[in-house]
Amino acid sequence: MYTTDLRTAEEKARDAKLKMPTKEEGEAAFQARIDADEYIEPKDYMPEAYRKTLVRQMSQHAHSEIVGMLPEGSWVTRAPSLKRKIILTAKVQDEAGHGLYLYSAAETLGTSRETMLEQLHSGKAKYSTIFNYPTTSWADVCTIGWLVDGAAITNQIPLCRCSYGPYARAMIKVCKEESFHQRQGYEGLLEMMKGTDEQKRMVQDSFDRWFWPSLMMFGPPDSDSAHSSQNMAWKIKRFSNDELRQRFVDATVPQAEFLGIKLPEQIKWNEETKHYDFGELDWDEFWAVVKGDGACASNRMDARRKAIADGEWVREAATAYAEKQRAAVRAAE
Amino acid sequence: MSKTTDWDLYEVFVRSKRGLSHKHVGSVHAADGRMAIENARDLYTRRSEGESVWVIPAKQIIASDPAEGDALFGPASEKVYRHPTFYDIPDEVGKM
Asked: Where do runs of H (alpha helix) occur along chain A?
């Protein structure tokens, strides 16, 4: 935690009696602070449900960054040029970094990193369903940068003003770095679209597979969204899933047209609303993937478990070395 | 599957350039201080955000309690006379 409480149990009990606000007082002050657009910081009073919601959302977000390295990671050794290889390596390293910023922020709420990782590996915690789709061509790496990171940015920008301070600060860092991810992906596709017919076909095929899943990244439609209204009141969420999805479609369609991609026929400019209509998404597919039906769901968790198991000797060695150093310092004292 | 146990948590402070002070940026887990510095460097300075890093075991930080906020910091807000704008100086005197 940022701030460890060093009082003795006795002092704590005394202070608790003296200062502890009643639940009602605490919640009223908490909500007033949020209504005034102030941030909530780690040791502030907060309702248990707020804490729980944030731990769930932030750890899921962190897990998504970590699992998100896997579909792209397998292309590091297959990148078409050295330039693309170092770019992809840097991007994958960023995803690890984003995961760690988020775990670090989530830990301030009192849940250990160990616990969060166990929840991921046991399947109790979820991560973004998009990472359970396979990456079958190099174009997918570029499309992920453009669409998946693009959708993530659309989701994350409002989170930079989320009411929980450590989460908001983590999001500011993430958003700054994420912009490179989107641009490198789009630029990669632009290059492929200048290439051979086969390369153009790869781009189109990749777009066709990723476009709809990327729209599902915003979550279920507002009419079915379980957490929305309370999260709005707490300013954990500032725009609804459907609003953000529309914002993403409106930004993406002209970019796709510029690339020369053939868009699905459901995409139509609506002169009245001044937005692109895109019809209904296949929510049965979404829920199936959430429940673990994605082509790669079990591969992803196997890869994670293997990484943890393979790294065990390194952690053991580092722990033993640190202990030896500490013993040497003690002996010299 | 092997079990992982968290290493100690270190809070990380980065100085972006000489002449400025170190600023809190987040935390890392590490087996020892040296590893904490290296992890902090990998995590928080990938884009030249810093030229100096401090790490401090999180459990060593002693912090004020938000519940005491009013008692500690409230009185300062009543002491307006500590600010130069509290005093009326005629314009003729010039800049002071």
From this structure: 9-19, 23-35, 48-73, 82-107, 113-121, 138-143, 149-156, 165-193, 197-216, 228-233, 241-259, 283-288, 297-310, 312-332
Residues in chain A: 333
> What is the ipTM score, two decimals?
0.87
DSSP tag of A40: B
> What's the Cα-to-Cα distance from B93 to each of A181, B84, B85, rounded to whole Å?
58, 15, 15
**CA distance to B85, B87, B96, per residue, from B92 (Å):** 16, 15, 11
Tokens representing residue B89 in the block: 């100086």
Q: What are phi and psi of B74, to 5 degrees?
A: -60, -50
Interface with chain B: mutation pick from A5, A43, A100, A319, highest number of B CBs within 10 Å: A100
- Is A100's CB within 8 Å of B43's CB? yes
Cβ atoms of residues A166 and A59 within 8 Å: no
Which regions in chain A score pLDDT beneath 70?
Answer: 1-21, 226-227
Whole-prediction pTM: 0.89
Mutate which: B1, B25, B44, B70, vs A, most A CBs within 10 A:
B1
Give the C-alpha distances (Å, rounded to integers) separating A64 from A68, A97, A271, B87: 6, 12, 36, 56
DSSP 3-state of A137: coil
Structure tokens at B38: 């290296």
Average pLDDT, integer, range B23-34: 96
DSSP B20-75: S--EEEEEEEESSHHHHHHHHHHHH-TTS--SEEEEEEGGG-----GGGHHHHHHH
d(CA B1, CA A72): 25
